[in-house]
Amino acid sequence: MPYRLFYADGSAAMGARVILEEVGETYELIETEIGAGMPRAPELLALNPNGWVPVLVWEHGAIYECAAIVIFLCDRNPEHQLAPSVDHPDRGRFLQWLFFFSSSLQTAYQMTYHTDRFCASKEDEDTVQRRSIKRLRELWQVIDNAIGHGEWMLGQKFSAADIYLFMLTTWLSDERGHPSVEEFPNVSRVANAVLRRPAVQKVYQPLD
User: Fold this and answer.
1) Which tens digit of pLDDT belongs to each residue from 177-206?
2) Are residues 21 and 97 in the same domain?
3) Does the residue 69 lie in any domain?
4) What are phi and psi of 12, to 5 degrees?
5) One domain for residues 10 and 68
6) Is the residue at 133 inside a domain?
7) What CATH number corresponds to the domain at position 19?
8) Domain final residue, candidates 59, 82, 105
9) Are 72 and 23 in contact (CB under 8 A)?
10) Which range marks the domain in which residue 59 is found?
11) Does residue 58 lie within any of the structural domains?
12) Do 98 and 172 fall within a single domain?
């Protein structure tokens, strides 16, 4: 049974799709409407009551949350070496960054793109927006410092963490007052290297 991926351009589902391309798995895209105020498809809600993508359907069920899907696919396809093995010294650091990206950094983006979720009233939205921009700059600086002189997020070894990092750089928006990726030279260097990978080109270049 091929995988089925509930998908929307511009969402975290793009990162999950890149992993599927990297490991050469057969999959079907289920194009999904996730716009603000738009009704969610009953099939999506049955699998993820939050109504968000990605959701990955496989022969034994379904998984949601992008970081969980990334780890799942990497561990099912160890020959592609997109994640350190469970007993490798870098495994903990790999998991650390995936969860940092999916919790701390994605929450900061949500404060920008879904400000109403963090406010009791509309009058507070400007304050939340300003804080989200400051928080994004703080978090990207943490990542930039962590990369340092390393070639990739884990040093000299490419991994799915670099794909996740790249995906999150594409969410930075000049229109919303976000910092530019160029403010973080190490992040920018890694993101540019990831962009050259064929799997990333296939998923992201059609949006250009």
Assistant:
1) 999 999 999 999 999 999 999 999 999 986
2) no
3) yes
4) -65, -15
5) yes
6) yes
7) 3.40.30.10
8) 82
9) no
10) 3-82
11) yes
12) yes
Domain tally for the chain?
A: 2
93-132, pLDDT tens digit by residue? 999 999 999 999 999 999 999 888 888 788 778 888 999 9
Q: Mapping DSSP to helix (H, G, I), strand (E, B) and coil, where does residue 95 land? A: helix
> Residue type for 194, please?
V
Is 205 contained in some domain?
no
The 3-class secondary structure across 154-176, one letter per residue, is: CECCCCHHHHHHHHHHCCCCCCC
Instruction: Quote the pTM value.
Output: 0.95
